[in-house]
Specification:
Order of helices and strands: HEEEHEEEEE
Distance between the termini: 85 Å
Structural class: alpha+beta
Strand content: 35-45%
CATH architecture of the largest domain: Sandwich
CATH class of the largest domain: Mainly Beta
Strand order of the largest sheet: 4-1-7-8
Shape: flat
CATH topology of the largest domain: Immunoglobulin-like
Largest sheet: 4 strands, mixed
């Protein structure tokens, strides 16, 4: 009888430890979730402090089919100063062919007149190296400014076309 009682006590103790482990695991998972939420909130606050909405400018790159131009890199200058130089991977280019948009630059600009110059590098028609620029003169007012660098195929001329446009 004593051996049976000892086994019963060991089983009860094992069950208690298993319950404590499950409880502890649940607490750890809750803490992980809270840390992730806090990290997300801190990131948003940091972005608001570094890039206030009234001085913010964002530049995006988009593409269509890409029959006449295979994008390799984009260099961006604002008011004559280089602010971004991005080298694209094949996966990123493929995502843009499927309708994706890449945020190339996020920064601050004071109100007034500004000039944006984008230089596109890649392979053009017939596999030749291709380098083209596009310029936009714009007025920055109070509030966020969004600019799109759009690369599209021009079927009539069988050449790529590089457009720079402001989003309203």
């Amino acid at each position: 009888m004593t051996a049976g009682l000892g086994i019963l006590l060991l089983c009860a103790a094992g069950a208690g430890i298993a319950e404590q482990a499950e409880s502890l695991d649940g607490q750890v998972q809750n803490l992980k979730s809270e840390v992730l939420d806090l990290n997300r909130e801190l990131f948003m606050l940091e972005e608001e402090l570094l890039f206030p909405a009234n001085t913010q400018v964002s530049v995006f790159v988009s593409m269509d089919i890409g029959e006449y131009f295979a994008l390799d890199s984009v260099q961006l200058k604002l008011d004559g100063k280089p602010v971004s130089n991005y080298l694209y991977t094949d996966r990123e280019v493929e995502a843009m062919y499927r309708g994706g948009v890449h945020r190339l630059y996020l920064g601050n600009l004071k109100t007034g007149s500004h000039q944006l110059v984008a230089i596109f590098t890649g392979k053009g028609p017939h596999g030749r190296d291709y380098r083209r620029g596009a310029t936009l003169d714009f007025e920055k007012s109070i509030g966020t400014k969004f600019v799109e660098l759009q690369i599209s195929d021009r079927q009539i001329k069988q050449q790529p076309e590089f457009l720079v446009r402001e989003w309203e």
